[in-house]
Specification:
Layout: E1 5-13, H1 19-27, E2 45-50, E3 54-60, H2 70-84, E4 88-94, H3 104-111, E5 116-121, H4 128-141, E6 146-149, H5 158-168, H6 186-201, H7 206-209, E7 211-220, E8 223-232, H8 237-242, H9 247-264, E9 267-276, H10 284-289
Parallel strand pairs: 1-3, 1-4, 4-5, 5-6, 8-9
Antiparallel strand pairs: 2-3, 7-8
Helix pairs in contact: 6-9
Bound molecules: guanosine-5'-diphosphate and magnesium ion.
Residues 19-20, 32, 40-41 line the site of magnesium ion.
Amino acid sequence: MSNHKAGYVNILGKPNVGKSTLMNALIGERLSIITSKAQTTRHRILGIINGDDYQLIFSDLPGIIKPAYKMQESMMEFVRNSLDDADVFVYMVQMGDKPENQPEEYEKIKKMKVPVLLLMNKIDLFETNDVNEQELIWQTDFPQAKVMPFSAKFNLNANILLLDLIEFLPESEPYFDKEEWTDKPERFFVTEVIREKILMNYKQEIPYSCEVVCTSFVEDGDLLRISADIYVERESQKPILIGKGGEMLKKVGTQSRVDLEKFFGKKIFLETHVRVADNWRNNESMLRKFGYRDH
Ligand code: GDP
Ligand code: MG
C-alpha cells in the first residue's frame, strides 16, 4: 500500500478537561464514559478512525494526577506509556487553565519532537475575547504546538482537527484491520457503562470504590444475556450500593440496560451482583484480575 498514513494519536491532559468527550465525538460512538467527576476514565481506550488511505488510532487516557492508590499508579502507567508510542499528541486544556498549572508531562511533550495539537476546550462557555486572549497565552508558552480553540461538546472545529491530525500522521501501513474501531472487547463496554451509572448515582467515595467485572455475555437469538459483578472495597459499602429495598441498584441496572441496548442494538437481560473485595485499590492480585496490569 503506497501513501497510506497511520499512527497513534494520544490524548493527554488533566482530569475533566474533555478528553473522553473528544474521542467519542470523533469516533461517533460512546466508547469512553463521560461524567463531570474526575478519574472517570481508568484505562487506555483505543478508538480508531479508518479512511481509504489513513488510520487514526486515538488513545483516550486517564487524566494526569498524583497517584494515591496502586490503582492510580496503574492509571498513570498508561499515561507514561502513551508518552513513548505517540505519533501525534493532542494535549487538552480547558478554558481558564494556565500553562504554569500543568503536570510535568506537559513539559515533557514540549521537549519532544512529536507534533502536538494543543486543544483549548470548552470555548462554548466563554466570550470570543477571552478565547483569543487565552489562545495567545498558550501559543506563547508552546510555540511548536498548533493551538486550536475547541468545543468537544458541540463538536466545533472537529473536521479541521481531523484534517490536521491526518496531515501529521507518518506514512505507514495500517496497524489494525480496517473494520476495527476499538481494541477493547464487548465485555469492557458493559463494565464501563455500569461504572458510568454508578458514578452518576452515588456520592463521595462510593464510585471510586467500585469496580465492575462482566462475568457472562451470551447471545441468545435477539437477546443478550449479561451478568456483572460490582465490587466494593468494604462490607459497609454494600448496603449503600444496593439501597433501601434494592432501589439504588435497580436504578443503576435499568439505566445501564437502556444504554447497553443502544450500544449493542439488541434487547438486553442484565443481572448484577454486589461483592466485596477488601481494599482492592491497593491489592496487587485484585488489580490484576480487574485488568490494571499488563502481565
Ligand atoms: P475527561 O476527564 O478529560 O475525559 O473529561 P470528560 O470527557 O469526561 O468531560 C468532563 C466534563 O466536561 C463532562 O461533564 C463533559 O460533559 C464536559 N465537557 C467536555 N467537553 C466540553 C465542552 O466542549 N464544553 C462544555 N461546556 N463542557 C464539556
Ligand atoms: Mg475521560
